[in-house]
Write a structure and sequence with these properties.
The complex is a heterodimer of chains A (322) and B (322). Chain A has 322 residues and is mostly helical. Chain A is 75% helix and 0% strand. In chain A, helix 8 crosses helix 10. The relative contact order of chain B is 0.14. The chains are: A mainly alpha (322), B alpha/beta (322).
């Protein structure tokens, strides 16, 4: 087990380095001169001395290897550089956005997984019945709706018309809520985007769980458990669900990696200050260091989630590891 | 000797889109205490359906439509769910068709045997662990291996684990459902010898479902032969070998190579098994029977006792009374 983890860990270290290197090379392989991004249109009116000064300030006159070394050093000290557009250190920006994204997408993932697993189990257990058919229709209907549309519909009904929830943001602007009041305010802002996220992502878990459960229910060991005199409920949860959860766990782990990337569309519709929207804004304004940083965050978290999956999977499936 | 199990006019049908599949129809036979009965027939003739009907394991779209399954004077088909739960494994256990898939992959084999013991007997967990150890040693597996998972065993070992599991609650009747399928010939011989041995030692009644006629004639006292969902002949092994009555039994014997008479020609049975969907009233063997006449096409022969203890379902064989 220790050896297995050590070799896995080494693999991930290699992956991270490859990723960092690619991330370093990508903007440098793009056509054009970094001066245009750094100084904008003014670059045409600059003297060569002025240009040199700017390049030197950003370390761009060094050799590519020196630049690479500096880049790696900065990454490991948590310094992602400076956003051209927002004129702020990227680390600050990310630290501001990450908690909101984690709250929204993390909670969304957990809730949609739980709901998907529960209904997937019910549906498979009553396969061929009206319950199964109705659940299938409902979840297929949900998955067919685009997220921005669901978001807009929810906003127009529950925020604009009924006024139950705020229209946008993660908390009331210029408010000074403390303690419980702030908590309630955050929850109120969270309800609509979270509901949208759950509605559009719950179907995949439902389908995977239903299909996996159907497969397991057809297995001989389920029949054997029945023949042994095991009661239905115990067969359902102890024998069937335990096995059927394995593919769901895999998908959960994969999605976990993408939670830090936020939910771009939903965050945009609700003007939610998450990483997804930050990424969207950075792409719109060609804010290269910021784009790089957000991409890097996503790749890092995918790798970490994969490593977590490697750690947890042997506990779930005795056939893996050891 | 007393009768342990008697099956009377058992019929199990499956509802499909194309019509009703009469998978088992009007099957009658019984089993004495300490007797080993071979239930023989080609693939798809309903042997396993009979076994599953006995334990009431038939699931939608299948249904036991009529008949009686009397175990020690009690009709299992009329038993309540609670009676069934306590009766399964305690009175009748199964050695499944493919032990490869009959063990739940996420639990240790010990846990699966212990589950059966704890379900049916008021013993402590440590007592059950001890008994599991004894059971595994009985079938020639190191008792400490109960902590292993199914995938850590070979196919033959899994089969023996399944046998140990079948004996966990000292049942009176064991149904071995083609439990050597998929094993190599040597392992098959070992497993069969083990079953025979344990049967004698524990005075078990065994229904040995198989399509291996020579093997069944070697170890069973009685043989019941099925064809296309019907029982065609039921008698002692000697009677079947020396004095087969039904044309199918005769053809089956002719189609089996015989070591003691290697010069005899092996004759295959021409034609193929009829489709059991909406099959009309007739002798189901008439399409392949060299002796078929008008009556066989329009009437279904009933199982009759032609000589004491020898039953067959053929119009050519007269009643013992006339």
């Amino acid at each position: 087990m220790g050896k297995f983890l050590a070799s896995k860990f080494l693999q991930y270290v290699i992956v991270i380095f490859l990723m960092l290197t690619l991330n370093f090379l990508l903007p440098r392989l793009m056509p054009g001169n970094p001066l245009i991004f750094l100084a904008g249109e003014d670059v045409g009116f600059m003297s060569s001395a002025e240009k040199e000064a700017i390049l030197e300030k950003h370390g761009l006159n060094q050799s590519i290897w020196q630049q690479y070394g500096t880049y790696i050093k900065h990454i490991f000290t948590g310094d992602f550089g400076y956003s051209y557009q927002q004129k702020r250190p990227i680390t600050d920006l990310l630290m501001e956005r990450l908690p909101w994204t984690l709250l929204l997408t993390g909670l969304g993932l957990v809730i949609s997984t739980v709901i998907g697993v529960l209904f997937g189990t019910i549906s498979a257990w009553r396969r061929g019945t009206k319950t199964d058919a109705n659940l299938l229709t409902m979840f297929m209907f949900l998955s067919a709706m685009p997220s921005f549309w669901v978001g807009m519909i929810l906003v127009s009904i529950f925020a604009a018309q009924l006024g139950w929830f705020p229209v946008f943001g993660a908390e009331a602007a210029w408010s000074n809520f403390k303690g419980v009041d702030r908590f309630i305010d955050i929850v109120e802002h969270l309800v609509l985007p979270l509901t949208t996220l759950v509605l559009i992502s719950v179907t995949s878990t439902f389908m995977i769980m239903r299909y996996s459960m159907l497969n397991v229910l057809g297995e001989d060991y389920i029949m054997m458990a029945k023949a042994k005199g095991v009661k239905e409920k115990v067969i359902k949860y102890k024998h069937a669900m335990r096995n059927a959860l394995l593919p769901v766990a895999t998908v959960f782990m994969l999605s976990l990696g993408f939670t830090l990337g936020g939910a771009t569309v939903i965050e945009t519709v609700f003007a939610y200050p998450g990483v997804g929207r930050l990424m969207f804004e950075s792409v719109l304004s060609r804010d290269y260091p910021l784009i790089q940083a957000t991409f890097l965050i996503i790749t890092f978290s995918v790798v970490i989630a994969n490593f977590l999956a490697d750690l947890l999977y042997p506990l779930l499936d005795p056939k893996v590891g050891k | 000797m007393s009768t342990v199990l008697s099956i009377e006019n058992l019929s199990t049908f499956f509802k499909t889109d194309k019509g009703i599949v009469r998978a088992v129809e009007d099957v009658t036979f019984s089993l004495e205490e300490g007797e080993m009965l071979g239930l023989i027939g080609e693939s798809g003739c309903g042997k396993t359906t009979v076994a599953q009907s006995i334990l009431r394991l038939i699931e939608y779209p299948g249904k036991v439509v009529s008949g009686k399954v009397i175990l020690n004077g009690k009709d299992l088909l009329k038993a309540t769910d609670d009676e069934l739960y306590s009766l399964r494994w305690k009175e009748i256990s199964v050695i499944p068709q493919s032990a490869m898939n009959a063990l739940n992959p996420v639990y240790t084999v010990g846990d699966q045997i212990i589950e059966a013991i704890l379900l049916h007997e008021k013993v402590s967990k440590s007592e059950a662990v001890k008994r599991t150890k004894t059971l595994l040693e009985l079938v020639g597996i190191d008792g400490e291996r109960q902590k292993s998972f199914p995938h850590e065993f070979s196919g033959g070992m899994k089969q023996r684990v399944a046998i140990a599991m079948a004996l966990a609650c000292n049942p009176k009747l064991v149904i071995s459902d083609e439990s050597t399928t998929g094993l190599d010939v040597l392992t098959q011989a070992q497993v069969i010898a083990l079953i025979k041995n344990l049967q004698k030692k524990m005075n078990l009644s065994v229904i040995l479902i198989s399509h291996d006629l020579p093997m069944v004639t070697a170890i069973c006292e009685k043989i019941a032969i099925m064809y296309a969902g019907k029982l065609v002949e039921w008698a002692t092994t000697e009677e079947i070998l020396n004095n087969p009555k039904h044309p199918y039994s005769k053809a089956l014997l002719n189609a089996t190579p015989n070591l003691s008479d290697p010069d005899r020609e092996v004759v295959s049975i021409p034609g193929s098994v009829p489709n059991l969907v909406n099959i009309p009233k007739c002798c189901r063997f008439h399409t392949r029977c060299p002796y078929a006449f008008d009556r066989c096409l329009n009437e279904s022969p009933e199982l009759r006792e032609v000589t004491p203890g020898h039953y067959t379902a053929c119009f050519l064989e007269g009643d013992k009374n006339g």
